[in-house]
Specification:
- This protein is an alpha/beta fold and 251 residues long.
- It has a single domain, classed as TIM Barrel.
- Helix content is 42%, strand content 15%.
- It has helices spanning 16-29, 47-54, 81-87, 97-102, 107-119, 132-136, 140-151, 157-160, 181-198, 201-206, 220-224, 241-248, and strands at 5-9, 37-41, 59-63, 91-94, 123-128, 163-167, 209-212, 231-234.
- It has an 8-stranded parallel beta barrel with strand order 1-2-3-4-5-6-7-8, surrounded by 7 helices.
- The longest helix is centred in the last third of the chain and has 18 residues, at 181-198.
- The protein is globular and about 45 Å long.
- The mean pLDDT is 97.
- The structure holds 1,3-dihydroxyacetonephosphate.
- 1,3-dihydroxyacetonephosphate binds at residues 9, 96, 168, 173-174, 212-215, 233-237.
- The site of 1,3-dihydroxyacetonephosphate has 14 residues, from strand 8.
């Protein structure tokens, strides 16, 4: 059985005070939830404050990115994965499409970041997904297969136990245009088959694959009904504690 994961990516939103307030409200609203893992990803400056306030609760903290470097050194502006662990966070989102689009993230840097994350004892939420042009030209599966092959290259079965995949079609992010549950299910099943091929059937069966792209309280349960959808990576609707809590409580 794959335990569902509902993760909120706060992107570049919220000062420290608002991040902590939202986290505290969320903690209160989801304190009884045991059916899924719950994760929030604040900006770097709020990581430690949020992690401190959520300590001992059922809500974990994730960073939104990290350096490709495993060791500390002269990399101005970068944050090493062990500094993220030091803040109390347990996860790092790697390869989000916004970083691929605006920050030159490649499958090679995604792979290096995953290795840094795992080496420092954290878990990675690895994002893949095609853009509109790629979907319309029938290239979606090829693009996702390439991102998986590059991003997960050389990872062992033990490494894969600490990886969550997030399928986020770029055309559905922040657009209000959710992939239909059928479209999402189809790609999730494809991703699972690729992992079975690159790793093993057992690994594929135990890997959680989240859907991301305009997930809201009103569409989460239809998505969660699908066999290969194991949770959600939520952007806009995770910024408000009440709305995110109702996504967590989708059942
Ligand atoms: P939205 O839920 O705002 O579409 O964002 C999805 C996303 O990018 C989560 O990482």
């Amino acid at each position: 059985m794959r335990k569902p994961v509902i993760a909120g990516n706060w992107k570049m939103h919220k000062f420290v005070g608002d991040s902590v307030d939202t986290a505290v409200d969320l903690k209160r609203s989801v304190s009884g939830a045991t059916h899924c893992e719950i994760i929030v990803a604040p900006v770097f400056t709020a990581l430690k404050s949020v992690a401190d306030r959520l300590e001992g609760s059922n809500v974990s903290v994730s960073a939104q990115d990290c350096s490709t470097e495993v060791d500390h050194g002269a990399r101005t502006g970068e944050i090493c994965a062990d500094m993220i662990a030091d803040s109390g966070a347990k996860y790092v989102i790697v390869g989000h499409s916004e970083r691929r689009q605006f920050n030159g993230e490649t499958d090679q840097s995604v792979n290096a970041k995953i290795r840094a994350v795992l080496q420092h004892g954290l878990r990675a939420i690895v994002c893949v997904g095609e853009d509109l042009r790629q979907r319309e030209s029938g290239d979606a599966e090829r693009v996702v297969a390439e991102q998986l092959a590059g991003g997960l290259a050389g990872l062992t079965l033990a490494d894969m136990e600490r990886i969550i995949i997030a399928y986020e079609p770029v055309w559905a992010i922040g657009t209000g245009k959710t992939a239909t549950p059928e479209q999402a299910q189809e790609m999730h099943a494809f991703i699972r088959r690729r992992i079975a091929g690159s790793h093993s059937r057992e690994c594929a069966d135990s890997t959680r694959i989240l859907y991301g792209g305009s997930v809201k309280p009103g569409n989460i349960s239809d998505l969660m009904d699908r066999e290969d959808i194991d949770g959600a990576l939520v952007g806009g609707a995770s910024l408000d504690a009440e709305s995110f809590a109702s996504i967590v409580n989708y059942k």
